Amino acid sequence: MTELDKILNGWKINNNYAHFLLKNLKAEWLNCVLYEKSRTIEEQFDHIIRMRLMWSSKINNKLGNESAIKTSNKNSLFLRLDNSSKRIIETFNFLNICDNDKFELFTLYTRLIAHESHHRSQIIAIIKVNHLEINPYVNYGLWNWGHNFNKK
């Protein structure tokens, strides 16, 4: 397995974590916040998506820009997560074949993973502060390397 293959595999797992978390949220929770004037759960996901698109556009301008579409519809968030994930995969492939002085593949990968992990943790914090009933397996599943995403 090449280094690029390892990064692409890790990225797909990262996107699966976002899906797993979103799948286990109730739609009415999307407007909950950690504290007054902070991001809602929906805005946390939107921010993840917008940062993916920003880095993709900044590095590989052939991909163009997608505007951030505000929605409380979970299905739309799933679709936007997948579309932005595909854009990042294209960007990783682009960085792997081009000689780019400003951006390096592994650095982008690690920054994106750290950024998205932070926002998933923010979502878990919102769930806890608002006393929302979520299966404890969800929080554990986000950190379990052998996690089965098909399990409810």
Structure, briefly:
The chain has 152 residues and is mainly α.
Structure commentary:
This protein is an all-alpha fold. It has one domain: Up-down Bundle (Four Helix Bundle (Hemerythrin (Met), subunit A)), CATH 1.20.120. Helices cover 62% and strands 0% of the residues. The chain has 5 helices and no strands. The chain has helices spanning 3-23, 41-59, 74-97, 105-129, 136-141. α2 runs parallel beside α3 (74-97) and α2 (41-59) packs antiparallel against α4. The relative contact order is 0.18. The model has no long low-confidence stretch (mean pLDDT 88).
Structural class: mainly alpha
* Known CATH architecture: Up-down Bundle
* Rounded radius of gyration (Å): 16 Å
Give the low-confidence spans: none
Most strands sheet = none
Which geometry do the CA atoms define? globular
**Order of SSEs, N→C?**
HHHHH
The CATH topology turns out to be Four Helix Bundle (Hemerythrin (Met), subunit A)
What's the CATH class label?
Answer: Mainly Alpha
Name of the CATH superfamily: dinb family like domain
Q: Which percent range describes the beta-strand content?
A: under 5%
Distance from first to last alpha carbon: 31 Å
Fraction in helix: 55-70%
The average pLDDT is: 88
Tally of extended strands?
0
Tally the helices.
5
> What's the number of domains?
1
